[in-house]
Amino acid sequence: MLEFKNVFKSFHNESETIDVLKNISFRIETGEFVAIIGPSGSGKSTLLGVAAGLDKPDTGIVSLDGVNITAENESNLADLRADRIGFIFQNFQLLPGLNAIENVGIPLYLKSSLTEAEILKKSEKILESVSMSHRATHFPKQLSGGEEQRIAIARSFVNDPKIIFADEPTANLDFKNSKTVLDLLLYRNKEQGTTLVVVTHDPDVAKLADRVLEMKDGEIISDSRNKKKIPSAQSKKVTAKKTTKQKKTNSRLKQASR
Ligand SMILES: Nc1ncnc2c1ncn2[C@@H]1O[C@H](COP(=O)(O)OP(=O)(O)OP(=O)(O)O)[C@@H](O)[C@H]1O
Ligand SMILES: [Mg+2]
Questions:
Q1: Is 195 near ligand 1, meaning CB less than 6 Å away?
Q2: How far is ligand 2, taken at its centre, from the CA of residue 40, in Å?
Q3: Which of 108, 182, 224, 238 is the most buried (most CB within 10 A)?
Q4: Whole domain around residue 11: which residue ranges?
Q5: 123 and 244: one domain?
């Protein structure tokens, strides 16, 4: 469960103050898939960073599974993120000096309980689940945008997080890569009960969510539930086709999470 209570955040520079989050309150239940939409500059990425404990609000409370993360110090927050949170950044943020498999393993290096061999094994399996094993030793600059995105997604999955925050995970991807990314995220949400919070400009992604929060000028201006779809005969056919593809993804992911 993620809860914001009266959260405010501003950025200051020499000449002005920008109020980016203005009295944000909401609650997301465990297992929900929530899309956050809104125009550029409305505060979506800032909100996601604050939710994941990457950034502090000025005032207000953010709690994750009952822990008030605004009150935690940086070391406790790092542990909490390594244990419970997966984060997919808007611009991937892969480390340029590490190859693909090393980038995937970063969250596990922060978990001191695992040996080097265990980290490598887990990273290999997750890399396979996003069909990127053949690029394991490539560095970010040798990867395409879609490949970098899949590495970023693998990195967000590797610690089996309880909640995944994804900032525009399908932006700049072609249809096929977008679908792969969405299938991977949906599998985590529907089959493993992972809470999913996705910032998106894509109406097709927002339609897949259980719920849509809309931001404007630092405020949440609407909070609506998507209707559950009742498949017609025609869409059942489409669903059946998707299911075959999904099964392949599912079996890869099942192997990976063993
Ligand atoms: N570190 C910062 N310092 C100063 N201003 C910032 C900082 N980060 C964000 N802002 C400002 O805060 C506002 C909200 O930014 P944010 O990145 O949250 O928007 P967004 O809704 O994610 O936009 P986009 O859809 O373009 O990604 C913008 O006006 C931005 O310029
Ligand atoms: Mg953004």
A1: no
A2: 7
A3: 108
A4: 2-227
A5: no
